[in-house]
Design brief:
It contains 9 helices and no strands. By secondary structure, it is mostly helical. Helix 2 packs antiparallel against helix 3. The longest helix is centred in the middle third of the chain and has 65 residues. It starts with a helix and ends in a 10-residue tail after the last helix. The C terminus is likely disordered.
Length: about 270
């Protein structure tokens, strides 16, 4: 048993070393294939065959997912085709996965260029700053940073002017709305007053009031059913007065005539 243990201890390190060698060999093979694909892609790019180059770069990334050169060049091919969104995505992959400062610098520099194309100047400033953190000696990146700062400042001023114009427009709109509302309220008040006056006139018409008095007067002159009119009463009184006068005259005439006097003897 002791002898077997010694043998196992002797062969175990050799077995582990063999595994590492095999893994390293596989990685080297994948790297070699990936680099070959990258070189093929580079040649296709020089021929302006971006579609074929993209396919080859993808093969390089498939062989070695963290292949910086393949991802970087694929991003550049997208940039030249004008596909800035995909180019940005690939360069961001390089910036994230790269371990070498030089690779990070190039990736962030290209990210800044893509953002400038997209008119994202403020974000481009940060990208160029990251590029300079990885390579402070690159004058081209420093120059681009200056352009990005000017662009970002101009966009900031433009946005402020737009906001001022918008605020002024909103203010003018609010003032106009207020004037319109005041006019509506005034018109409504005048209309309500007019309607009130019209209603008042309908409730107390001047002509009707005068006519009402005349109507009452006329109504009083008209006899009620079964009653004598004032004119009839007047006529009746006059007739009675005339009759009474005649009667009185007759009585007076008889008084003046006296008792008949006898002129002869009694019979």
């Amino acid at each position: 048993m002791r002898t077997l243990l010694i043998i196992l201890l002797t062969f175990t390190p050799f077995f582990s070393y063999s595994q590492d060698k095999e893994k390293e060999a596989q990685e080297l093979m994948a790297l070699k294939k990936a680099n070959n694909f990258v070189h093929q892609g580079n040649e296709l790019v020089t021929e302006d065959n971006y579609v074929a180059a993209e396919m080859v770069y993808r093969k390089a990334i498939s062989e070695q997912p963290n292949n910086i050169a393949g991802t970087y060049n694929l991003g550049n091919s997208y940039y030249k085709k004008g596909n800035y969104d995909e180019a940005l995505f690939r360069q961001q992959q390089v910036a994230k996965n790269a371990t070498d400062k030089s690779d990070k610098h190039k990736a962030f520099h290209n990210i800044g260029n893509i953002l400038m194309k997209n008119k994202q100047c403020k974000e481009a400033v940060e990208a160029y700053k990251n590029a300079l953190r990885n390579d402070p000696t690159d004058d081209e990146t420093r120059y681009n940073l200056g352009l990005a700062k000017e662009c970002a400042e101009q966009q900031k001023d433009d946005n402020q002017d737009k906001n001022k114009d918008k605020d002024k427009q909103d203010e003018n709109k609010d003032e106009k709305d207020k004037k319109d509302q005041d006019k509506k309220d005034k018109d409504k008040g005048n209309q309500d007053k007019k309607d009130g006056d019209d209603q008042k006139d309908k409730g107390e018409p001047k002509d009707d009031k005068q006519d009402k008095g005349n109507g009452d007067e006329k109504k009083e002159q008209q006899p009620q059913p079964g009653q004598l009119s004032p004119q009839q009463i007047k006529n009746l009184l006059e007739a009675m007065n005339n009759q009474e006068q005649k009667t009185q005259e007759k009585i007076n005439a008889e008084k003046q005539k006296g008792v008949k006097v006898r002129t002869g003897k009694d019979w």
